[in-house]
Amino acid sequence: MLTVVKDPALRAMVLSGPWGTGKTYLVREFAAAHAEDLKTAGIKFAYVSLFGIQSLADVRSRLAAAAILHGRDGPTANLLIKGVKFISSSVGIKGVDISGIGNLAQEIIEGAVLKQLFICVDDLERAGSGVLPKDVLGFISEMIEQKGCKCLLVLNKDKIEKSTLTLFEEKVFDLTIDFRPNAEDVASIGLPSADDRAHAVPVFDAFGSANIRVMRRLDWVLRRVKECQFSSLKNVWPTIVRQAAVLVVLKFERGYSRQLLGKVIERTRASRAIRDLYHKTDAKVPEDPLSDVTGQLDLLAYEDAGFGGLIVDLLEEGVLDITAMLSALEQCLAVQENAEQIERLRGLFTELRGGFASKAADFIPRLVSFLNEDLSLLDRTSLFDTCELLATLMPGKDADELVSKKLSEIVSEVPVENRERHFKIFGNLWKSGIFQAISYVPKTSAVTLSETFQGAVSGIHAKYITLTDFSDDELYDFLLNAKADNAMAQIRSVREQLSSVSSVPEPIRKELAEKFGRVLARIAAHDPLFKLQVDAFTTPRSPNAVQMGAAFNEIIP
Asked: Edge-to-edge strand order for the sheet containing 12-16?
């Protein structure tokens, strides 16, 4: 840009790049940093965004205003401003026809100031329907040829009809720069913390994004999470940044819905390995709604850290459940403390993904050895998927006995008549009869219900399934005696998450929603204060809640 300012032979240039990569920021920083160079060259900087502008007349007026304000201390500007004030004050003079004086004054002022400018025309692809690209390019040509101006056109060429731009580009512009910074180039603008950038940039690189506005939204999410005051936050912070970065990029860069973000959260390494197994056996691969980002997620070795659902709630509604986040962070820390076991599981499935057929004799015993360990810290989804994988690779009595041993405590809590809807998704395990054979051992103690409820609050999807196994009376007694200050917020969290836990079958979600409705209505029937609290705090919120827009408008520039 400085070359265009100083070189008389260069009059106009194009700066093109994807949205959000800091083009406008770069131009404004240039104008501030090189104010003396512009002054020495005898030109004034004037910026106009075409975003929503409906006519070229508006473009001229805004450029003239920018030029006057830029040089408001000069004699020409002072004279023009005084003239505008005089014309404005003359409107009330009796006997004088001034019906056209305003337009005339505007033309005089614009003609006087739209000279020797360094014009920056931004957002060509976002102009209103009344401003066509060819008209803007014609206007730029006029400013260059007749007004002695220099011009910088800022746009995203990918969003402009190529034939229109090509027609004028060679004639009007002397230089075209394709501005495509990588995430590291612009991360310092959107993410002030160097530590945050170190963990977030690989995520943005994986998705091919260098969008500063998306980075600022990530920064907002991270600042909200820091409000939790978790004592070991630094130990889990890299995981928080990576998971939040994935969800923020997918929402604001890819336009993912709440439901699809939920699918991302449910995704596990074991599930990916099983899909690879389908490929290798030429079987029909189950439909995967994440097929367009599978490669990026694999590259990042993406796994849910347990608090993804809470981050999605924050992105959708602008509200973070601090209590639930603290609980999820505690769980994440516990899993990280068992990192050696998790790393070995990662190694097993990475090896499987590389082609297990030639290594089956070695792989299966190692998988069996792993399943014989204490896996109490392994999330239930990964445990079930790993058992399903063993049943697929090594069908037979030995595998059935091991799987039954590992899953019996979980499965025994579910009544036999409810198991088909819970576990039939694990096809080979279901066919083996393991789920049906495990005896039902109901666990209805207050402690168990409390743990189950807290797990649901934290977004552990398996806990929602377990909640259906408690009777209305048990849930009634538990909620009636919930004296914690945040009890209402927790009830609300569980109820509203029912709409997004897509890993839980729809019939179960419906059943649980009805159960909560019956129990809460039963309590409210004889407790006016509880009814008031229910009405005020526990009605599920809309995904398009006003809080989200208000929060982003207030905090994010």
From this structure: 44-49, 117-122, 150-155, 12-16, 175-178
Burial of 476 per CB tally in 10 Å (0-12, 13-18, 19+): middle
Per-residue pLDDT tens digits for 72-109:
444 554 545 455 444 445 444 444 444 444 455 556 66
Q: Is the pLDDT of residue 221 over 90?
A: yes
Asked if 114 and 149 count as a contact pair (C-beta separation under 8 A), the reply is yes
Q: How far is CA 54 from the centre of its chain?
A: 32
Tokens of 49: 């965004």
**What is the rounded distance in angstroms from the CA atom of residue 403 to the CA atom of residue 390?**
8
Q: Compute CA distances 412 → 68, 434, 439, 442, whole Å.
A: 78, 11, 6, 7
Separation between Cα atoms, residue 160 and residue 532, nearest integer Å: 55
Q: Which of 68, 2, 6 is nearest to 33 (CA)?
A: 2
Which of 45, 21, 41, 48 has the alpha carbon at shortest distance from 31? 45
Q: In sequence order, what DSSP letters do the residues of 10-41 get, joined into one string?
A: --EEEEE--TTSSHHHHHHHHHHHTHHHHHHT
Q: What pLDDT does residue 548 have? A: 38
d(CA 145, CA 170): 15
Q: What is the pTM (predicted TM-score) of this model?
A: 0.55
Tokens 């743990």 correspond to: 451
Residue 508: which residues within 8 A CB-CB, separation 6 or more?
421, 422, 464, 465, 468
